[in-house]
Each structure stands twice: as structure tokens, then as C-alpha cells.
Amino acid sequence: MTSMADPNPPRFLSFLVCFFFFFLCFFNNGKSSHFGLEINDDDDDDDNRLAIVQSRSTDNSRRRCDLTAGKWVYDPSYPLYDSTCPYLSTAVACQKNGRPDSDYQKWKWVPRACSLPRFDALKFLGKMRRKRIVLVGDSIMRNQWESLVCLVHGVVPTARKKVTYNGISMAFHALDFETTIEFCWAPLLVELKKGPENKRILHLDLIEENARYWRGADILVFDSAHWWTHSEKWSSWDYYMEGKSMFKDMNPMIAYQKGLSTWAKWVSLNLDPRRTRVIFRSMSPRHNRENGWKCYKQKTPLAFFSHQHVPEQLLVLKEVLRRMRFPVYLQDITTMSALRRDGHPSVYRRPVIDQKEKQHTRDLSSDCSHWCLPGVPDIWNEMLNALL
Q: Is 362 a residue whose pLDDT tops 60?
């Protein structure tokens, strides 16, 4: 009698088939990991670095490498350019101004979970070919702009680069790459105008006068924080205005939230995320306690914080960005930079004229807000390069 095959195969055989199918699906893409780090197996990258994947929290298809968690590591191969860079403003050229130590130039940021690629000027300009990058903000954003221009200018022949000026904007042009790197002065983002009796009025709901300089950019990097919290003595305005209502006093964080909301609305209404990348850099920390002398004679980064402090401005910024539908990436440099109290100009914000002046530096003002270049903003730009 001929036996017939069992129409129901053994359970363990079904299990093996399912497991094999799952195995093929899971490993179908040999380059990516579901834990958010992509292996960069580009032939040009000999050290097979981990490519950094940064995205909004709503994008679950690509996970993130947290660039903000890490430590400063001394690296004698830094800096990536020297203080002879012709684009450095006097206030941040600390070596030219007589700063005696130079180790503050030699620290790189090492994230815990992935690597931060070293800035390669030719690769950066290659990626940015025919693109317009605009950095918008205050004097610390100009600090970052000078850093970025100095990072790239060395690979551009003298006759093939230039700087142009247009109103509140200045631009470095790498002509062979058709790349433009601009800085646009707009420390409050919204408009500050003269009113009746020469009073200075901050219009919390007007922005177009500044924003017209940003139109057409491929990459926009913003910052705005410090001017909103200047003391009354140093405040840049006399009145706030919203619509037709004018206010003498307002909680600065409420004013900041209103100004950022105006900026967010402009971004959403005027930019196309398929055409323009938007990044908002968090506030640069200041080390101004003890009347600005907290950074004086500091020569090494802090290893850790005795207590963590999150500035109010950062909390307000995160909330505004959270409510936006336009994909804006927050480049958070606040905590990592707070460890670098050694990186400020301090008294070396202008040239030391003679030996007598050098001996009495305590009589000079100390800048613990801006950053010496080469220095900390170079690392911000390495992060920016990784994001792009």
C-alpha cells in the first residue's frame, strides 16, 4: 500500500523556513544598522568611520548618533589652520594678540557612540559645489563664519577667492566651486528699528527686512540668544512692539519666544525643505562670572560639571522647534562648549602693545564670551560638516 505524504509538514520545519526568511530581511542592507549608525564604506574613507545620522525625532527610519555626548581629547595634529588666516578679526586672533599658550587650539571633540570626521576642506567644498551657505546671527555666529572660511580658504588659490559685502551681509566666494559662505548680521532675527524721538523699537512680529538676505540659500544656519538677555544697561532697544501694541517691559524669555515664533513662521511660509536645509545652533556659553575673569589664564578644558545647568534660552528654543512642522535641526553645542572656559580671548582680545601693559593685564577687560581662533568654533564646523 502506497503511503501519501503528510499534508502538514513538521512544526520545526516551518519554524526554520520563517527564521531563514527573517534572517534575509534583516540583513538585506549590509550598510545600515537598526541602531542608527551607518557604516561608511566609501573607498575614500580609509578608517571606515561611522557615518553620522542626524534627523528629527519624528523620523524613525534613521536613528541618531548623539554628537553632544562625549569628551574633549588633546590632539597635537590640531589646529587645522593657523592664526595667520587673513579672515580672522582682531578680537579673536589671540595668538597675534599675545596669548602665550596655544594648547587651547589642540582639543578635538570625541562623541561616545560614533566618530566625528576630521574637517576636509576639499571634500567640504566638493559637497557644497554651486551652493550658498548663510550663517545668520550675532557676533558669535560671525566667530563661526570666520572659522569656516579659515578652514576652507587654504585649498582655494588666492586669485580664485574673494569677499564681498552687501548691507548686513558679507560673503566669501570660492570661485572654482561656485560656493558662497555668507554671514548675515541679525542678532535678534526680528527687526530693530528707530521710532519717534529716536527711540529703539524691537518689533517682535516683523522679520522680512532681515530675511530678504536669506532668500535663495541652500543651507541656513541660525543663532540668536545673547542679545535677548542683555542687562538693561546694555539692552539694544527701548521698547518692544507687537502689532500696534508697544511695551516698555516684558519678560525677556517671553519676548524671545515671540521673536523665535516669528522666525519659525517665516521659515514655514517661505522655505521649501526639499530646497533648503535649516539648522539652528544653540547658544554659545559664556564664562563671565567674577566680572569676566573666570576664563583668564585657563589652559585646559573642564573634565566634567559639578552641576548641570540648562540655559532658559535653550529650553525656549527647543519648545519653538518642537512645534514646527518644517524640519529644522538643532545643533546643540551648549554643553560641550561650556567645558571650554580655556577657549576665550580673555585679555587677548586686542594686541598687547608693550611689556608694561602685559604685566598689568588685570587692568584690561576680559572677553569670556567670544572664542579664540583657531579654537572651539572649528569643532562646531566639523559637526556642521558631518550634518551636511
A: no
Residue 111 one-letter amino acid: P
Establish if 4 belongs to a structural domain: no
Whether residue 18 is contained in a domain is answered as: no
Q: How far, in Å, CA of 207 to CA of 205, rounded?
A: 7
Residue 153 lies in a domain: yes
SS3 assignment, position 136: strand
Q: State the pLDDT at residue 41.
A: 32
CB 98 within 8 A of CB 90: no
- The residues facing 173 across adjacent strands are 162, 180
Q: Which residue has the cell 564646523?
A: 381
**DSSP annotation of 200:** E
Q: Among this protein's residues, is 367 annotated catalytic?
A: yes
Domain count, the chain: 1
Q: Are 160 and 175 in contact (CB under 8 A)?
A: yes
The answer to whether 135 touches 172, Cβ cutoff 8 Å, is no
What letter represents residue 92's amino acid? Answer: V
pLDDT in tens, 190-237: 999 988 888 999 999 999 999 999 999 999 999 999 899 876 667 788
Phi then psi for residue 254, to 5 deg, are -70, -40
**Domain hosting residue 263, numbered range:** 46-387
Q: Are 239 and 195 in contact (CB under 8 A)?
A: yes
List 138, 332, 342, 367, catalytic entry: 367
Q: Catalytic annotation on 337?
A: no
Question: Cell digits for 210?
Answer: 532681515
Helix (H, G, I), strand (E, B) or coil at 36: coil
Active-site residue, from 139, 205, 218, 235: 139
Tell me if residue 236 is catalytic.
Answer: no
Kindly give the interhelix angle for 252-270 and 312-323, rounded to the nearest 10 degrees: 30
pTM: 0.81
Q: Are 168 and 210 in contact (CB under 8 A)?
A: yes
Residue 63 has pLDDT above 70, yes or no: no
Residue 91 in any domain: the answer is: yes
